[in-house]
Amino acid sequence: MNKLDFFRHQLEILECLFPTNWFLKPRTDHPAYKRWELCKRMVAQNGILMYPEQDGDLPLITKIVLDTSIFIAISKGSLQNLEFGSLSFYGDNKVLKKIQKRVIIAEQFEDIMVELSFGAWHITKSHLVEPLEVENYPDLKIVLPNATVPLYSECKRIKQDGENNLKLRINKANSQVKSTNEVCFCVAVLDVSSPITILRVTDDSLPNRLNEIVSKVGRILRDKQNRSIGAALLIWDDYMIMGNPPHRILVAYRRRSIPIYHSSKKVRKKIPESLPLFDGFTVTMNMHFEPRR
Q1: Packing angle between helix 31-44 and helix 58-75, nearest 10 degrees?
Q2: d(CA 128, CA 141)
């Protein structure tokens, strides 16, 4: 597949998630519209980046590719052919209405993407994923191979990493899993990309800011109010660039994670460290620049 067709498919898949003609009205404050607009520009340029003015578009382009793989996974489409399937494969009508309602709201698009990303990873591992749209319940129920009880997950995007804000999110997740009245594993999925910021990296070192968040979350988990949560999973994004523009380069966009297990013996259901929670995603893309003449 050439680069022009590649970006045309990215456009089509993104449009499948939104109402017909939704992108025809400029919505410059919406993350999905920014992705769509960039893909339109790349189609107009036959899939070739302009150097040097588009050097800064590399992280967003590869994030679009990651988003596409998530949409394809939840819709049971074809990753090889870059074809969207159907959202009806992901959940019932209540779940679909929730997704369709939230993706069009700029402030909620990245929030729903946290849940879809976590669910998509488990779908790619052939785990049974059941999205839930039940009041006061967690977002997802997942049946894992060789696990005697299901895994419930509540997925949150953390905009501010102050201890009070983290505590509020974790307390809510704990309350939601208790509402199921079921013996289960529970993980609070916390996307901390916003406070960490998406950085260009050269290795697998952990961001300094992440170490601070790990300490805060560990303290909160030890609180007696949070005995239903077996682990918190911190998720963040980064990217690598191999090569130097305007020559051909390879960009790797990564969704990384680190689990923080509840250390108390009083946790209601301890999560074994061998349980597959989330190994993250990595997408790569070769890019060619066209120097400005």
Answers
A1: 110
A2: 8
